[in-house]
Amino acid sequence: MEVSNRLIDLQNITKIYGETEVLSDINLYIRKNEFLTLLGPSGCGKTTTLRIIGGFEYPTKGRVIFDGKDITNDPPYKRRVNTVFQKYALFPHLNVYDNIAFGLRIAKMDKKQIALKVGKMLELVNLQGYEKRSVDSLSGGQQQRIAIARALVNEPEVLLLDEPLAALDLKLRKGMQLELKRMQQALGITFVFVTHDQEEALTMSDTIAVMRDGKIHQIDTPKHIYDEPKSAYIANFIGESNIIRGTMIQDELVHFCGQDFVCVDSGFDKNEEVDVLIRPEDLHIVGTDVAQLTGLVKSVLFKGVHYEMIIEAGGFEWKVHSTVMAPEGSQVGLSVIPFDIHIMRVEKEESDPGGEE
Amino acid sequence: MNLSPFGIGLIVFSGVLFVFLIAYGFKVHHGMHRSIFSSPYTVWMILFTVVPLFLIGYYAFTDVNGKFTLENFANFWDSNREMKRQLIGMGFSLEEMGMTARGSVNVDTLVYSLKMAFGCTVICLLLGYPAALLIADRKFKLGPTIIILFIIPMWMNFLLRTIAWMSLLEDNGLINSLMTRLGLPKLKLMYNTRAVLLGMVYNYLPFMVFPIYNALSKQDVRLSEAAQDLGANNFLTFWRVVFPLSMPGIVSGITMVFMPSVTTFFIPRVLGGGNTEMFGDLIERTFLTADNWNVGSALSLLMMVLILMSISLLRKVDPEGEGGSFV
Fold it and tell me: CA dist B52 to A39, A57, B57, B106, Å?
């Protein structure tokens, strides 16, 4: 990646509160027009990272570079970024119009132009005619959109969003996800989005940075993160997964459940202990005669699009997603193609995976 | 005090009212209800607030013989009225004696009280707002300590606190003996309007600080951050967001300082030495020294109307009375 394409560059950011290290040596760059998501469980430091970009916190160590300039110690009002806060933080003493016009008035723009811009913004967020309403009279979804309009009207180069959809119900959240993605593409603004919702991250982002304990664990496109998680932790956090301990016999051959399986990964030591990931939708229910593993169906749950079955085979309880149901108590065969077997290096310390989901 | 049949009637009436209230509670709630627990308080309120209020109204509109009159209010306007009436009754001519002029003591005292209360409120606001701002600042570690320092003196009776100021301000008090030690001339600190104002501000300042502090500390920090995020520097953040949102606290602070300020008594007498009588002292003097319950009641009633008017005026600024939640 060319340096000039980096709009925001976080260099060796460390943040210490008292004696707790919230962020340890974060290095992260954000490209122009990128939709980057900071994903992780609560307490992983994702919000702190966002607040450092916004200027609400200053790093204990490290530098924040914005468009080639060091802005590490600049206060928020000097930065060309705007924020959509978690609980919106709309000004309760101002009506919708005055809330959106706040930044423009500070910038001393003339009245006609303010009126024009605010009108356009209300159109963008689909709330025309709400100018005179008090913000308290709006629903959560509407407040959310006003908060976005209030930030976007200033035409920031970067929009920071701190779990902006967390307070909305599922249906509204899905709608807003698409809406936000549409706005980002239409306006050509860089978005830095914080969430603990992996599905939201997968849907919206160009790039996802998975954070854990104040470190960036993996940074990649949503597809790569899902398909090639770097560790069992990420595999567990993003999507559902079966993770089993195995041994690498040689390149492209792994041993688990007492059998050898052909896979596509290489570059591991001979007989290295590894984590094997197979996504529930990659396990196929087949006849016992052609199966790689055979087992007993222990439970069946209907999930709408698919059935979720727990199948005990080879001494492991496999989670299987399939549109075909195998009845509880029946004997079935399982197969998986080599491409869907993902080999990951074992993490040094085994800690509780997953988040608050 | 000689209670007229009217007064006794009032007490009987309040007793009946009380019984009725409880009976009504039983009827509405089909038996005993939690509201019954409020009855001791209700009785207390009726006996010591409602009944005295009616009595004040009764005295204000009657003369010594218990007959209806507006004379007491006329007395407020012309404080010499009673004297003039007696002189005329003795056969003197007011013109000849040069006694026609209106006695303006009562009105003047009221105006002086209002001025003092206004001054005290303004000073309290000017001192109290920055203090509240500082205490409410989360980064300011001494905040809780300062709150305690504000509260501790309030555990003491305000008469004692005021008298304590005497030993500081006296001609041979702490400040002046320090001045002498330093070879500076003594200062005339007591027995003037400034000393009274000082005593008032000292006594009422916490009532300004706490409601404002309360309003400020309840404010979401995110709102200030949002303002900063939208380009407002520290001053604009304060002016456009923090200050307007603390308005309920200011209104409630002003109410809580202005009301007791207008009715201040004792402080002017101790620190002002009688040169600076305020309306509270006048009422007290009318009741206890002049022993004129009728005029005293009329003055109290006027005071009450004035206070109610100023409250309702403030209510218009802060209809929800949010800032008042401290009280």
Answer: 68, 59, 9, 23
Provide, as residue numbers in chain A, all residues whose Cβ is less than 8 Å from the Cβ of B220: 87, 89
Chain B interface includes A62 (CB < 8 A): no
Looking at residue B47, its pLDDT comes to 81
Topology of domain A241-345 in CATH is OB fold (Dihydrolipoamide Acetyltransferase, E2P) (2.40.50)
ipTM, two decimals, is: 0.81
Report how far residue B243's alpha carbon sits from residue A107's, in angstroms, rounded to the nearest whole number: 20
Residues of A in contact with B228 (CB under 8 A): 55-56, 75-77
Average pLDDT over chain B reads 85
Which CATH fold would you assign to the domain A3-227?
Answer: Rossmann fold (3.40.50)
pLDDT tens-digit series, residues B257-314? 998 898 888 888 888 887 788 898 899 888 988 888 899 999 999 999 988 888 888 7
**Which tens digit of pLDDT belongs to each residue from A126-179?**
899 999 999 999 998 899 999 999 999 999 999 999 998 888 888 888 888 998
* Residue B127 CA from chain centroid, whole number: 19
Nearest CA in chain B to A87: B222
A186: which 2 tokens?
């239409």
Give ∠ CA A88-A91-A95 in degrees, rounded to 5: 110
- For A82, name the nearest residue in chain B, comparing CA atoms only: B229
Could you tell me the two tokens for B170?
Answer: 């006296």
Contact A92/B at CB under 8 A: yes
Angle at A96 between CA A92 and CA A99, to 5 degrees: 65
Q: What is the reported pTM?
A: 0.77
- Closest of A246, A225, A247, A221 to residue A236, by C-alpha: A225
Beta pairing, strands A273-278 & A342-345: antiparallel
Give the pLDDT score at B30.
65
Residue pair A136/A127 in contact (Cβ under 8 Å)? The answer is no
Domains and CATH numbers, chain B: 5-97 (no CATH), 105-326 (1.10.3720.10)
pLDDT band (50, 70, 90) for residue A100: very high
Q: Search chain B and give the residue with CA nearest A91.
A: B223
Per-domain boundaries in chain A: 3-227, 241-345
Contact A261, A292 (CB under 8 A): yes
